[in-house]
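Retry 2 of 3 after timeout on previous attempt. Resubmitting structure tokens to design endpoint.
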């Protein structure tokens, strides 16, 4: 037994070393320079180490920027500039907030209520988590994913789930609603980059609030289908879980009347959601809300919990998020996006529009392995619009494909929402990759046989 475990781990280390080293076999050229080669080697190595869970998360998070610096491919101000992005501080604030809500008992109360309203069943809970994420994003312009993550985590804790496929599916459903919805709901951060890219060539263009829903709304079908498939694969009928409505009624009774602390927590959450909704109009950073709410939680007369709960926070997650963001920043610095575009231009010549659209989709999928969605949309949108105009494809459709590809992913680090949910420790990496892999496959096939023909019929492409 021990020999097998050792052999398996050794094999994973060999794969993690050999695959990155194979990039050395690619000859240098004007576009594939040495710095790009080192970037790909370093990034792929750490990605594989993370995927195989060969090192503690904090060690992996420290290793990648160290490799970038030691190799000299980027200066310190580029490698660590991710620490001044609002995503890192939103995640830290979100971790504090979720611990506060858990400590005061509100997460547990909401979790029991959600389960009861979903019929008190595992299947109902899975779909309940999915739609909670969608609804929160709808009312907050896609800024509700952190609140949704904390709520889904609370549900897993409420039913005493340990890291497992059962917990992973609930978390997966939550991230589909909480993060996956960003490709078909109005998300100002994404829209601003797409709109500015198109306006470089079509100055009068303004993106509509429903544009992404009209183009990518069918993705929700692929999400739901993925959940159904895993409910079947996991053989839910035989799960050893107690999902009885009376059980959760009793648990709610045990909590007693809603406490003053919970009422204060509800008020703070409502204030946070109102603020997130208002940022679309006020143009204030989303970050302000996530920083101020935890601060208010510790003020006199509020005091939702004691300072010791901060010791429960997984600070390695914050380092991990910052490291993941640095992949996109360093990739942009060494010219990764330019490399991708230089490679695909000759491939597109004389090809059908379907072929070109699939190439755009695969380009986004590959770029997302090395860049965050924000970095990818910011770095590739302008070039993609230029390419689409030169080959006779609607540039709006081309950018919607790039947006769609943000959810064709495989690993937690590829999006902040997935990373946040994974950081709670309920999703084994093996299950995460399986679930996201199947979803991505369905999205690619669905694009080819459903979305593209529909776009062509309507005149979107």
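Retry 2 succeeded. Sequence:
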């Amino acid at each position: 037994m021990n020999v097998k475990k050792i052999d398996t781990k050794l094999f994973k280390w060999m794969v993690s070393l050999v695959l990155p080293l194979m990039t050395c076999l690619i000859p240098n050229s004007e576009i594939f320079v040495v710095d790009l080669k080192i970037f790909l080697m370093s990034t792929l190595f750490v990605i594989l180490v993370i995927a195989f869970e060969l090192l503690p998360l904090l060690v992996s998070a420290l290793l990648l920027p160290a490799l970038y610096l030691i190799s000299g491919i980027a200066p310190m101000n580029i490698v660590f500039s991710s620490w001044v992005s609002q995503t890192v501080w939103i995640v830290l604030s979100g971790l504090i907030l979720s611990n506060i809500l858990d400590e005061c008992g509100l997460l547990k109360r909401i979790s029991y209520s959600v389960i009861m309203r979903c019929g008190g069943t595992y299947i109902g809970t899975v779909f309940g988590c999915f739609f909670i994420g969608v609804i929160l994003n709808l009312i907050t312009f896609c800024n509700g994913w952190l609140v949704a993550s904390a709520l889904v985590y609370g549900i897993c804790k409420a039913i005493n789930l340990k890291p497992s496929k059962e917990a992973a599916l609930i978390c997966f459903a939550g991230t589909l609603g909480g993060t996956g919805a960003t490709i078909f709901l109005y998300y100002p951060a994404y829209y601003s980059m797409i709109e500015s890219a198109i306006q470089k060539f079509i100055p009068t263009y303004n993106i509509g609030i429903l544009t992404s829903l009209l183009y990518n709304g069918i993705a929700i079908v692929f999400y739901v289908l993925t959940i159904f498939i895993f409910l079947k694969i996991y053989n839910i009928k035989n799960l050893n879980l107690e999902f009885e409505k009376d059980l959760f009624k009793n648990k709610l009774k045990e909590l007693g009347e809603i406490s003053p602390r919970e009422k204060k927590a509800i008020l703070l959450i409502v204030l946070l959601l109102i603020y997130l909704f208002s940022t679309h109009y006020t143009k204030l950073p989303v970050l302000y809300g996530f920083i101020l709410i935890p601060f208010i939680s510790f003020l006199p007369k509020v005091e939702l919990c004691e300072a010791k709960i901060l010791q429960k926070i997984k600070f390695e997650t914050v380092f991990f998020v910052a490291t993941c963001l640095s992949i996109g920043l360093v990739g942009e610095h060494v010219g990764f996006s330019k490399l991708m575009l230089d490679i695909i231009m000759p491939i597109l010549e004389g090809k059908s529009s379907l072929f070109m659209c699939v190439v755009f989709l695969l380009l986004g999928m590959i770029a997302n392995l090395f860049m965050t969605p924000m970095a990818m949309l910011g770095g590739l949108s302008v070039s993609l619009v230029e390419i689409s105009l030169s080959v006779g494809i609607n540039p709006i459709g081309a950018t919607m494909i790039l947006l769609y590809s943000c959810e064709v992913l495989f690993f937690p680090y590829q999006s902040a929402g997935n990373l946040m949910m994974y950081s709670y420790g309920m999703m084994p990496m093996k299950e995460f990759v399986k679930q996201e892999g199947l979803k991505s496959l369905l999205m690619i096939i669905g694009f080819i046989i459903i979305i593209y023909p529909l776009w062509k019929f309507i005149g979107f492409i």
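Attempt log closed. The CA atoms of residues 150 and 230 lie 23 Å apart.
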